[in-house]
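Illustration: Outer membrane protein.
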Amino acid sequence: MKRIVFALLAMSFLSVGFAQEKTETKSADFSRWKVRVRGIGVVPNESASIETIGGDVSISTALVPELDFTYYFTKNIAAELILGTTKHDVNTVGSDISAIGGPTNFNVDLGSVRLLPPTLTVQYHFNQSCDNVFKPYLGAGVNYTIFYDVKPGDVVKDVSYDNAFGYAAQAGFDLMVTDKFFINADVKRLFLKTDVTVDASNLAPGLSIPAKVDINPWIIGMGVGVKF
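Result:
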């Protein structure tokens, strides 16, 4: 009889241990990847220090598609890489070009430029239980912006922009539609500065206008995604 009791106890302990192990394995099983497609608005919060002619800078807003990838190291901690490119029109505001026979308050057309700003953020995700539909997150990271396809317009000869590192802050949420598919809303702020050189030698011999430009754009996005 004692042997039967001991055997039953042993079996019950083994069953409990197996169930606990199964539960822990299940809790550790979560989706490592998320991919999103978003439409984003890139809204510069620009300012500039322009030598020689003074004034400020104006940079247009851009609306473009964007693709991003998120990898989860744990259920709550993840890294996100965003990929997208934007085109912006640029001009000075209130510049004094009287030295070359122009007005004292003039907006100089500087053409357009494209930006490629791959941004990597580390995020903390809240409400990660499978039962939660609303899953917000916060993030911070870095970006490296590449300026390319510069078209100086019809006023100056050329414009050059220095590629630059910047910082990023982020907040957003995923709204689960099914176990795999979700809607996403996201806001980022990039802290981005660049040195700009305007070649205006077509207006006056040897005229070069350096400027330090703060772009500091808001990136506001909404889209859909899938986790796997």
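Reading the tokens back as a structure: Residues 1-30 form one domain.
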